[in-house]
Amino acid sequence: MTLALNFELGQAVLLVSRASAEAQNLDALQQLRETLAVQVGSSGKVDFEQVDRIESGAVSLASAHYDYVVANPAEPWAVEHSGRVLASLLLALKPSGSLAMHELVLDSTDSITESPITRTKDDLAQQLRFAGFVDSQITSCEPVSESTLRVLGESCWNLSDASAFVARANGHILVAAVTAKKPAYNVGAAAALSFGKKAKAKNTNDAHVAASQPAQKVWMINVESDDDAEIEDQDDLLEAEDLA
Question: Which residue among 15, 24, 101, 132 has the highest number of C-beta atoms inside a 10 angstrom radius?
Fold first, then answer.
């Protein structure tokens, strides 16, 4: 399964995956990077980052820097994107930027104990929403082949009994192709709110109506000093009985 990727000249693209000299997907990733570089041209760019470095916090992606993020694009799709990784990818996208990725999911909520895969496609869609993505769509979801399951069990997850895992997981682990977008604003962006004065009367009739309305009465306390005011003797304020 491959992602349908078509980019424009001048776009900035981030390619995210897990790759090493021993990785099964190294050649495929290199070929994909070269293809994307041709599409965006010399005025664009294609960067690569290891998903493990994002997960560990060893690298901080530039904010609002990329038009497109392509994650986990090559078989055997061994990466499960955590909430932290998805949040970092969202941050790296420009407003209205797009995410395209593959992820392995379970066909039901029944877990496979030998596998680190824990999410269904519905769980994945929910995780994308929690991370802040919008318009997320699972464009396809197909069973992983037995040969890919064997690579996962033997090379990626180092399972002690890869054959038993393949027999148990066959038909129950799927690869989902997902697209999503960043909202048309940056996380934390500020917008001015208008609390201006009330608009003036539109015409003379409105002004006349406003003027004819009685003014509201306001209780006021006069605190101005009056040095000439006579101060009454407090004894004069008392009755005879009070003085007894």
Answer: 101
- Please state, in angstroms and rounded to a whole number, the distance separating the CA atoms of residues 178 and 105: 11
Tokens 């934390």 correspond to 188
CA distance 41 to 60: 26
pLDDT in tens, 114-156: 888 989 999 999 999 999 999 999 999 999 999 999 999 998 8
| Burial group, residue 144, by CB count within 10 angstroms (0-12, 13-18, 19+) | buried
Q: Which of 114, 102, 234 is nearest to 163 (CA)?
A: 114
Sign of the dihedral through C-alpha 47, 1, 156, 20: negative
For residues 58 and 14, give the distance between their C-alpha atoms in angstroms, rounded to a whole number: 17
Q: What angle do CA 221, 224, 228 make, to 5 degrees?
A: 125
Which among 212, 233, 180, 172 is positioned nearest to 71, based on CA atoms? 180
Q: Which two tokens stand for residue 94?
A: 């420009």
